[in-house]
Amino acid sequence: MARWAQEAYRISERRAAKLVRLAISTLRYRSRKIFDEVLRRRLRELAGTHVRYGYRRLTVLLRREGWHVNAKRIYRLYREEELIVRTKQRRKMAQRQRAATTGLAARGNQCWSMDFVSDKFADGRSFRILTVIDQFTRECVALEADRSMTGMKVAQTLERAREERGRLPESITVDNGSEFSGRALEAWAMANEVRLCFIRPGRPVENGFIESFNGRLRDECLNVEWFSSLDDAREKLAKFRQHYNHQRPHSALADRAPAVFAALQRPAGEASSEVWAGEGAQTPPLPLQPHPAAVTEGKTGNSRSSLEALECAKPARNEAKWIPTAQNL
Questions:
Q1: What is the mean pLDDT of residues 112-140?
Q2: Is the pTM of the predicted complex or chain greater than 0.70?
C-alpha cells in the first residue's frame, strides 16, 4: 500500500509510510531468502553427512566454516527442513539418592575408562569392541574390534595405547566382567603399576564416561554403518575414532574436539603424541595457559617382558576394590 501511494501520488517514501501508519524500517526491509537458501543447502549437506547430529552440533560445524549464525536460526531451518533426529524417550524413574561424586580425573592420562560393546556383521555373526577413553580430555584412546576378547587381548590393546600416547594412566575404571577381573589383566596391571578400579555390580552409572561414549558410538557409527567383515569393521571404527577425537564438537568441552582440548591442557613444550590429520580436522590452537594440575610424569616398567609372562604370573587376590562414581554425561 505504501509503495502504491508513493508511485501514484509522487510522494516521498517517509510520507507514504506515515500515511499508512507503517514504520519506515518495515518499509525498507529486504528479504534475506537468498542467503537462507544457501544456508539451507549447506545445512542439508551436513545433516546428510552426520545423520545423528542435532541442530546444536550442526551450528558448531557451520560456525567453524565461517557462517555467522546462531542456534535459534539453525533450529528454525532445522525444523522447516524436517531434519529432527528421532530419539527414544526414556521412561521416568523414581527419584533416588545417589552417592557423592568422588575420584574425578584432574588432568589427562590420569584415569581411563574401558568397556565392551557388541554388534553383528552383515551375515549375523557377532563381534565385540573394546572401548577406552580418557576421563579428563574425553579422547577415545582405543577402539579394538575382534570376534572374541580376552584379558590377554585387552592387555595388548593397552600396550598399543601406551606406545601411541607415551604413557599409561594411574588407574582404569572397569566393570566386573571376566576379561577385566581375570588373572591376565591383573598381572599386567601389577607389572605396570596401574590400579584397576572396579565399579559395584549392576551400577554402570559409576562408569558414566564410558557409558556415554558407548551411546555415541552406537548412535553415530554402529547404527548407521554396515559391516561386511572384521577388517571392514576395524577400518570404519578407526575413521570414527579419528573423527571423534579431531572434528566432533563435544558439549562438555565448550564445543571443542577432545584432541583440541587436550592440546590446550598440555604443558608448553610437550610434544603431542597424536597426528593432526584428516579432512576437515579442526586446527589445533596454540597452547594457552597450561592446566594447573598438568605435570609431566612418566611410567616405568618392562611392558614387553610383562606381556610374555602374563600366563605364568600369579597375581595377588583383590582384597579391596576402589569404588569410583562418575557423572554421566
A1: 95
A2: no
